[in-house]
Amino acid sequence: MLLAASVLIVFLVLAALYxxxxxxxxxxxxxxxxxxxxxxxxxxxxxRTMSFFNVGLITxxxxxxxxxxLLVASARHWREQEAGLVTSGAEGPPLEAVRFxxxxxxxxxxxxxxxxxxxxxxxxxxxxxxxxxTTLGYLLARLYDVDSGAIRFDGVDLRNLGFDTLSQxxxxxx
Length: 174
Description:
The protein is α+β, with helices and mostly antiparallel strands. Helix content is 51%, strand content 11%. The protein is built from 5 helices and 4 strands; from the N terminus they run H-H-H-E-E-H-E-E-H. It has helices at residues 2-18, 22-45, 51-83, 133-140, 163-169, and strands at residues 95-100, 110-115, 148-153, 156-157. It has a 4-stranded antiparallel beta sheet, with helices on one face. A hairpin with a 2-residue loop joins strand 3 (148-153) and strand 4. The chain is elongated and about 80 Å long.
C-alpha cells in the first residue's frame, strides 16, 4: 500500500512539474526495467538479498527515474527549440539569388533566381524540359542545398531547419 501511494505521489508531482503526462509515465515505466535488471543480476550471481541490496534497489529506481526524466525533458527541449524557428507562417519562402549546379556538371541548373511565393498560395512551376522546374522543387524540399544564395521560411534559412519541421510545413504535389 505504501509503495502504491508513493508511486501515485511521484506521478502527480512529476505531472504537475512538467505539465505533461508523458514524462511521469516514462519514469514509471522505466523504473521496473531497472529493478528487473538489478534483481536478475543478483539472482544470476547467486548473491543473497540483504539490506544493502534493498538500498541498492532504491538507488537503481532513483537513477533510472532520473535518466528517464532527463531523456524525455531533453527531447522535449530540442523539439521546442526546432519548432520555435518557424513560428508564424506569415511569409512564404523567398528565394534570394539562388544558384545550384549538380555535382560534376559545370552548367548551373538554376542560376541567380529571385522569387517570392506568398504564404498559403498554390504555385505552378511550368517551363520547357531542362529549365530547372524539378531542381527548384528539390531545393524547396531541401533534397539538395543551394550552392549560393538562400531560401528562407519566415526569415530562417532552409538549411537551419530540421527535416521534421520542413515536412510539416510543406505539401508538394507533382
